[in-house]
Amino acid sequence: MWSLERHRDVGAYALGVLDPAERFRFEDHLPECATCASLVGELAPTTGALALYARVTPPCVEVLARPAPTFLDRAVDRLGALHRRTRRRLWGATVAALLVLAAAGQGVAMLTGVGTGSGHTATLRGHDAGTGVAATVTADDQDWGTQVGLDVRDSGGPRVCELVAVGRDGSEQTVATWTVRGDPVALDGGVAARPADLARFEVRAADGIPLLTLPMRAS
To answer: Keyword Ribosomal protein: yes or no (predicted)?
Structure first.
């Protein structure tokens, strides 16, 4: 039993971590045990390398570099936020597609909300069978106001049209103007008002005749 216990002390002896009494007993055992003597010899290069590292490494340097906790926290938070935004976008796109199919050809405007990193994005889709105008408007909440995206199809024309943002206080801001030539039109623009302050978007002809109204809230 004593011999087996000494076998287990080989690593500790090679690293120099045995207390004086245990070291004395192991060295007393070592000449009589060829197995332990062989193991100590095999560990000698490793213990020598560790000793050299200890001599040349400043005390304040850790063996392994570790990222700061704040870095790990930021990385985990950003990954979680990305996953949440992806799930919201997929859900919003699915709901919007179902609403478009359900309301096709009925001349109604629809509103769906999709979360974004900067705030809230309202996506409005509508079609007016009388004027032949179909449009999708996205209103992205920004610190400076509302970033607006427009995709519009117009079977009328040729004519000049405009997209107007109408505030809840009745104020109006022109987002963009374009000429209808029979092809779909995609435009980007912006207004100073925030989405919460907007009542609706209107596609109008240049003479002010409304062609399609997209309310910020479904009626």
So the answer is: no
pTM of the model: 0.47
pLDDT per residue over 68-77, tens digit each? 555 555 555 5
Structure-token match 């004593």, residue found: 2
Count of C-beta atoms within a 10 Å radius of residue 98: 11
Cβ contact 58:31 at 8 Å: no
Cβ(132)–Cβ(122) below 8 Å:
no
Pairing state of beta strands 109-115 and 133-142? unpaired
Q: What is the DSSP string of 14-55?
A: HHT-S-HHHHHHHHHHGGG-HHHHHHHHHHHHHHHHHHHHHH
Looking at per-residue confidence, does 219 or 192 come out higher? 192
Domains of the chain, by residue range, sit at: 2-56, 71-215
Helix H segments across the chain? Answer: 2-7, 10-15, 20-29, 34-56, 69-103
| CATH number for the domain formed by residue range(s) 2-56 | 1.10.10
pLDDT at 107: 45
Q: How many CB atoms lie within 10 A of CB 130?
A: 8
Residues 6 or more apart whose Cβ sits within 8 Å of residue 99: 110, 112, 125
